[in-house]
Amino acid sequence: MIKVEHVSKKFKHTQALKDVSLEVKQGEIVSLIGPSGSGKSTLLRCIHGLEVPESGKIYLEGELMDRHDPVKYRAQRNKMGFVFQHFNLFPNMTVLQNCTLAPIQVLNQSESEAEATAMRYLNRVGLAEKRDEYPNKLSGGQKQRVAIARALCMSPEIMLFDEPTSALDPEMIKEVLDVMGDLAKEGMTMIVVTHEMGFAHKVGNRVVFLDQGVIMEDAPSEQFFTDPQSERAKDFLSKVL
Ligand code: ADP
Ligand code: MG
């Protein structure tokens, strides 16, 4: 589904990613974990095209993502849903409008078609009755569930999550993780940057552990949590578990 080949990314004084290679197969749930500043967000943002790597290549379903072919590149980006830590809902639009905007403007869906799809996904995240509310009337957990529904309305092939529960009050984390767990069960391909080790262990099939811009470990979740190989991963787990 995704292939990252020798990707490096530098910000002014920081080498955020150093020669990172990674393959994600259809239906895999990959947890991207590691200390703060290790390059997790940068990797996810490079995959989604929100950051431009200085070198390396990214393939989606076997096809190179190439900025110099903007029409194809945009179509490829539209196949990836991105969920942000801080939701990034449009504050001046209702829940329903948040969900239908891109399908209408980007996929040229009719309003009724986009609304029907949106209501299906809002139902799935348990928020159909909030369709006419504005985001500021919702709790954090509700906002994030709307953000997930909004991403799903674009019929993505893969979902990318960047710490989707880190900005939530503790009592709201489960409702978001439950929605993500349901998606995983339905076979969605997912890359999830998370500090929720329970989710990474039980829902994720695989852990990619980053440290200082390098993939230090890439292993099935069970193996990573019971028998981490690198000292860095052992040290990290001793602090978070
Ligand atoms: P993580 O998500 O694992 O916490 P990031 O990918 O956000 O890590 O950051 C990796 C490194 O790159 C950090 O040292 C961070 O300070 C730096 N970095 C990230 N984004 C930027 C940016 N826009 N400008 C400058 N430095 C950045
Ligand atoms: Mg981050």
Automatic annotation (TrEMBL):
Its membrane topology: Peripheral membrane protein
Annotated compartments: Cell membrane
Entry superkingdom: Bacteria
Any one Pfam family match given in the protein's UniProt record, by short name: ABC_tran
Keyword check for Nucleotide-binding: yes
ABC transporter domain: residues covered: 2-237
PROSITE patterns: ABC_TRANSPORTER_1, ABC_TRANSPORTER_2
One GO term describing the cellular component: plasma membrane
Chief location category: membrane
GO molecular function annotations of the record: ABC-type amino acid transporter activity; ATP binding; ATP hydrolysis activity
Keywords: Amino-acid transport, ATP-binding, Cell membrane, Membrane, Nucleotide-binding, Transport
Record-stated family: Belongs to the ABC transporter superfamily.
Protein name: Polar amino acid transport system ATP-binding protein
